[in-house]
Each structure stands twice: as structure tokens, then as C-alpha cells.
Amino acid sequence: MIIVMKVGSPQEEIDRISEEMCGRGLTPEKIVGKHKVVIGLVGETAALDPLQMQEISPWIEQVLRVEQPFKRASLEFRHGQPTDVAIETPDRAVHIGQNHPVVTIAGPCSVENEEMIVATAQYVKASGAKLLRGGAYKPRTSPYAFQGHGESALGLLAAAREATGLGIITEVMDAEDLDKIVEVADVVQVGARNMQNFSLLKKVGAQPKPVFLKRGMSATIEEWLMAAEYIMAAGNPNVILCERGIRTFDRQYARNTLDLSVIPVLRSLTHLPIAIDPSHGTGRAEYVPSMAMAAIAAGADSLMIEVHPNPAKALSDGPQSLTPQRFDRLMQELSVIGRAVGRWQPPVVALT
Ligand code: PEP
Ligand code: MN
């Protein structure tokens, strides 16, 4: 249920209503929009009558029920106000959300050594990426495949962060590693294979860094939004949803089927920012540019793209990784689409 306050409602009145709701055993959450304040209510609201609730204060404009099972993640809960996830990076605050330019996240599948991660960070930054990705802990299908360098790779990510000022995003697979990851990462990734690891979702929800939640490879949209709800219910409202391809019947030519139709669907259901990962989505470097362009045209808020200085030698996901040169060209191609849809940051012009 949500309480929509009238424009100009006094703060004391908003506080008074929130306190009254606490007294009724509900959890109120204040959402400050451009013009109005909305008080989202979570808890046992089934027996409450919205019309009666409206009588609580003359400053209440409307009381509405949230019909979706995902309450905090639903568009209704914020009365249509999009969430802006602010990420503090050494360089600047990076904002991911509908009212901001598209944010590109780029970097290798896994962190291999200091030289490669620092060099990749420098390349992708020069091309316009705002965040560096790189796996320290890797979820691999085979136990004999490279598993990531683990804790030592976190140190290498910290070095790349220091060297370039880029923010870092890296995956947590095991809750035991979360504290160490949070020390280095500006955004914590929950991978496709852990999307319904509910105990992990609760733990990333209880730490302060934004969470990049990948869609499970056979997850429905509702299951995905309920996973986001776990994180939000645990106290963390900063969730970015990332489509990374789903399993379908045909795996002959592409690794997954990138479901770009989630962009308009999610827009109608949630206020959370939407990212697209065309690298895992297709599994083939040659298909990544088209899908990245399509994602921006369809309204994505962020892209995650795998880039490796020498894809043929990559320890994981080489076939889907772009070279820095191809990534640079792609960013120029993307700028055309990005500008056409009014979502591209003008390049920073160096002062002479
Ligand atoms: C990754 O981003 O490297 C990764 C493992 O992604 P996903 O969870 O989407 O497979
Ligand atoms: Mn990968």
C-alpha cells in the first residue's frame, strides 16, 4: 500500500503519519519524488481500507494498494518515480537510472594479473566506460576450469581502481567473501547462478553497496523481481537488474537468447534501473555490438560488456570478449544511438 501526499505537505505531517503506521505494525518508507512525497507501506495491509486511511490527514491525496507480490520493487511502490542508483567511485558519482545517460561497464570476465587488469581499465576508461568489471571469484560449469584468483584478485582490482579512478564491480559467490569484496567493490554483483540464493540475497541486502542482480538463466521476470525484493526487504534499495540471456531451445549458434523484450516489460513493472549484458547474452564477440546498440535503442540504462586485451588467451569467456580496439569503436557507434535517444554523456573535452 502507498500513501501519496499532496504537493507541499509539511514534514511534521509526513512524520506523524509514518509514526502512526509504525504503531499499526507497518513499515513505512518515505520516497521523495520531484514534486510529491510517497509513503510506501510494507506489512499486513490486507484488512486496511484505503478510503478510511485517507481520513487520517487532510494532506493525504490518495491511498493505493500495491497489487504485485514484489512490493518495494514495484513501480506502484514509488508511484512511478524511477530509482537512481548513485555509485561513489574515486573519480565521481556515477548515476544509473532512467534520468541519466547510459552507463557502460566494461572489463574482462576474470581478473588474470595486475598488468592485464590495469591495462584493460585504462583502455575502457579512455573509451568512455564508467565502471570496471572483473571477476575474482568465478562461477564455472566445470570444477577443473579456472576458478578465479579469489582474494588476491581483489587486491588487483583495488590497484586498477587506484590507477584509473574507475569504480569496481565484481561478483560475490559465497557470503563468506562478502566483507572482503565490499571493501574493494563499488557495486556487488550477484550472478545468474545465484539469483535465487536467498540467503546470499539477504546478506547483500544488509550491506550498503549497490547490487547488480543478474537474471537467472531460466528465471521468470516475476522470480527475478522477487529476488530484487529480497535484497530491498533486507534494507538495500539500490538494485540494478541485469538481463544476461536466458536458456532457450537453440544453443547452436548463440550461448543464450538475450531477452531484450524485458526492457519495456520491466519498465511497466518496476522503478529499478535496467542493465543489459550482450556478452553473456550471445556468447560471441561478433554479435555483441548489434545487441548493445539494440539495448540502448530499447531504453537500457546501462550496458555490461566483456573486454580483454587478448581474447584468444583469456582464461575465461574469450570468445565473447571484445578487444579494446573493438570496444572503442563500439563506444563510438553507441554514441550515435545514445544521442538519438537522448541518453549519451557528451565526451569530456580536455582543456588545453
Ligand atoms: C559474469 O558476469 O562474469 C558472469 C559469470 O555472469 P552470469 O552470472 O551472467 O553468467
Ligand atoms: Mn564472463
UniProtKB/TrEMBL annotation:
Keywords: Transferase
GO terms for biological process, alphabetical: aromatic amino acid family biosynthetic process
Stretches assigned to the DAHP synthase ferredoxin-like domain: 1-67
DAHP synthetase I/KDSA domain boundaries: 90-336
Record InterPro entries: Aldolase_TIM, Class-I_DAHP_synthase, DAHP1/KDSA, DAHP_snth_FXD, DAHP_syn_2
Domain of life of the source: Bacteria
A GO molecular-function descriptor: transferase activity
TM helices/strands, residue ranges: none
Coiled-coil residue spans: none
NCBIfam families in UniProt: DAHP_synth_Bsub, PRK08673.1, PRK12595.1, PRK13396.1
The protein's name in its UniProt record: 3-deoxy-7-phosphoheptulonate synthase
Gene: ccmA
